[in-house]
Every structure is written in structure tokens, then in C-alpha cells.
Specification:
The protein is mainly alpha-helical. The chain is built from 5 helices and 3 strands; from the N terminus they run αβαβαβαα. A 3-stranded parallel sheet has the order 1-2-3, covered by helices on one side. The radius of gyration is 15 Å and the shape is globular.
Amino acid sequence: LNDIYPILEQSHQRPLHSHSMLRSFYQGERALSQRQVLEVQKRNGIIGLIPSEDVINNPKKSREKCTAGLTRFIKSLKQVSTLLGDHSVGIGSDIDAPMNFLGPDDCLNQPAFSDYRDMSRLVDQIKKTGVQLVTAREFLNRCPSQ
């Protein structure tokens, strides 16, 4: 990833990281480091975070209150949105991925988001937080193909 940012800049393209998570929430190779997030910020890019229990730290190991999937996912969206600005964060989903979606969240009084039929309900919950997700149209306008 670090090698591709100069190439994107040379080509006047913005970085897009989809199906990602922040390394502060998931200590995996696929997760974005703080440095990579800052590169996206510098280049007005977009990050799509995947709504899955598989890429959110195990809440049972956390001492934080309200660490269930949806609460934790919204926290990650807010963190990216704060760094990148409105309409720079989205939901990076894959309808045929063999991943767990988000479990029930007692703090938000929400049942599980068990499959992709729940996506519109997930988007509605995110909108209530004030996080402004990037739309497909905004993405296309910001990341034109040459």
C-alpha cells in the first residue's frame, strides 16, 4: 500500500480502501494503519469499513462498556469520518463473503445484523449517529476513471 500512494498521486487518482478496518480495532495485516489512514486523508480518499464481528476486536477482552458489534462499528466509522471528513467513509461490504455480520447490541437496543438483507437497517442506524456515508455517486465523482 505504501508503494501505491505515489503512483495514485502521479495519476491524479484518490485512494480507495474497501473491505477494511482500522488497525486500532483489528490487529490484522489487512487493517489500515494510522499512517495509511493519514495518506488517505492527505489525498482526499475514501475508506470502506466492513461491518463484521470478524474484524472488530473481541469485546469480551475489552473493559469498555458497550463494545458490541454495532456500537464498535459505529465508533470506527466516527473515527474515520473525523479524520477524513464527511462523505469519506462507507460500508465496505461483500454480499458473498463468508463472514459474520454484527451481533446484537444491548447498548443500542438492536437485534443482530445477521445478513445483508439487514443492510438498510444498518444504514438507518448509522445515519442516526450523524456519520455521513459516501454514496456511490459521490464516489464516482471523486474517483473518475481515466
